[in-house]
């Protein structure tokens, strides 16, 4: 009977290879926990919104007639053109869109601007919604709202605190203490989107008459919307009604928020 040759060196090599496969040592010499498996990278979820609506057609004619009373006095052809608005020039309408309207009347001129931005995060660890919150926060900081202790949310502002309702205004802003009723000063809003605020600025616009501009900014998921509504009276002694402008701007903002949820 012929015996098979026994090679001691080969046996030792097999033992070494088996030991290496079970020791959990990578080919580059680094230790790898066999139970942990291959490391995975957690990617933040994408934003809720992937496209944007055409903004000039997002405002109903009835709403425009209310916001731009001077348009009703124009000839039909001019009236239709005014209601269509002017679309903002953007390079990617899936990322940012806007529209503007203007109307003059014997009593006052009105301007309405809508800006809608869909925010995308290019950091896989940061969600689109979180990135949008950063964009919104910069707008809120730029509005120079009163500190929470002075104004707080909308409910706190409604208490009619006698503190300075304008806080520390940004350059070019006029404190609104004398022209903005208590409860209507710039403040946070808790009934619109995921975060929102209203700003109210009463300032000179280059003429004897002063312009009041109300801005409502809100964030819903990864979209940030700005509604800016302004009125400039024809007479310097007339002060635009802060309550009326804020109600109209907030009403339009709520309609735009509802459209985003459709």
In short:
This protein is of the alpha+beta class. It is built from 6 helices and 7 strands, in the order αααβββααββββα.
Task: Calculate Rg over CA atoms.
Answer: 30 Å
- Largest β-sheet summary: 7 strands, antiparallel
Estimate the helix proportion, in percent: 25-40%
Name the helix and strand elements from N-terminus to C-terminus, one letter apiece.
HHHEEEHHEEEEH
Overall mean pLDDT stands at 78
| Number of separate strands | 7
What's the helix count? Answer: 6
Outline the structure in words.
The chain is an alpha+beta fold and 262 residues long. 26% of the residues lie in helices and 22% in strands. It is built from 6 helices and 7 strands; from the N terminus they run H-H-H-E-E-E-H-H-E-E-E-E-H. Strands 1-2-3-7-6-5-4 form a 7-stranded antiparallel sheet. Strand 1 (86-87) and strand 2 form a beta hairpin. The chain is globular, with a radius of gyration of 30 Å. Mean pLDDT is 78; it is low at 1-7, 10-35 and 150-178.
Itemize the secondary structure elements and their pairings:
Layout: H1 8-22, H2 61-67, H3 76-84, E1 86-87, E2 96-104, E3 108-118, H4 128-142, H5 154-157, E4 187-189, E5 195-204, E6 210-220, E7 223-233, H6 242-260
Antiparallel strand pairs: 1-2, 2-3, 3-7, 4-5, 5-6, 6-7
Relevant terms:
262 residues; 7 strands; 26% helix; disordered N terminus
């Amino acid at each position: 009977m012929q015996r098979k040759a026994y090679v001691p060196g080969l046996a030792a090599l097999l033992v070494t290879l088996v030991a290496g496969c079970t020791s959990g040592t990578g080919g580059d010499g680094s230790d790898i926990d066999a139970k942990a498996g291959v490391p995975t990278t957690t990617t933040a979820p994408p934003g809720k919104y992937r496209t944007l609506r055409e903004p000039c057609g997002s405002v109903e004619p009835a709403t425009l007639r209310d916001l731009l009373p001077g348009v009703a006095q124009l000839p039909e052809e001019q009236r239709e053109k005014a209601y269509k608005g002017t679309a903002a020039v953007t390079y990617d309408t899936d990322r940012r869109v806007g529209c503007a309207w203007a109307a003059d009347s014997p009593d006052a001129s009105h301007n309405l601007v809508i800006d809608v931005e869909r925010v995308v995060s290019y950091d896989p660890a940061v969600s689109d919604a979180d990135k949008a919150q950063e964009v919104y926060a910069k707008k809120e900081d730029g509005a120079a709202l009163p500190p929470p202790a002075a104004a707080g949310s909308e409910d706190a502002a409604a208490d009619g605190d006698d503190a300075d309702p304008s806080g520390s205004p940004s350059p070019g802003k006029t404190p609104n203490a004398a022209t903005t009723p208590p409860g209507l000063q710039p403040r946070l809003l808790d009934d619109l989107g995921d975060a929102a605020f209203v700003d109210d600025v009463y300032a000179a616009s280059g003429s004897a008459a002063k312009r009041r501009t109300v801005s409502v900014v809100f964030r819903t998921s990864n979209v940030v919307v700005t509604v800016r509504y302004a009125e400039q009276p024809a007479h310097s002694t007339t002060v635009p009604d802060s309550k009326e402008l804020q109600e109209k701007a907030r009403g339009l903002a709520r309609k735009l928020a509802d459209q985003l949820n459709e």
